[in-house]
Write a structure and sequence with these properties.
mainly alpha, 169 residues, single chain
Amino acid sequence: MKEKIVRIPANNSEITLYACLGEALMKTQVAEQALSHSITLKKNPDETKEQADEFLKRQQRYTLGHAIKIANEEKLYNISLLEDLNAFLVQRNWLVHNVIPGNEEDFNARVIKNELLDKIESIRDKAEVIHRKIEYDLIDFCESKGKDMSKIRAALELQDQGMRIRKQS
């Protein structure tokens, strides 16, 4: 016997929450992908593309926590970036696993508090920062291997400038 479920349309605050969560999760996944690619390149700088692609496939199966553990154990990044990654992992885990606990009453009442949205937005912003730091670190790594990264660096700096302008407006 099929149960008939009556769906209640989301109110504006719920729609805002879903949009914030979606954006934060997407930006977190982009940062995770950047980390996987970076680890792959740093651990396999002299491998063929095919070998690096195989390593990347394995690397992408790891959780963010496992990838950060590898980065820590193998000292793949400077201390500042490793500290940022470790702090971000705590925030990301809260977003993925604990956004509901502690907020059940509000969710049941269909009320979304600004503090919750602010916390989610700060995780979104941190994911962007982590992503960008990984990109610049990877540029530095490639330059240390003799690659000309000037065009890539210039393109990132132009994007950064555009982001700063948008945030100021």
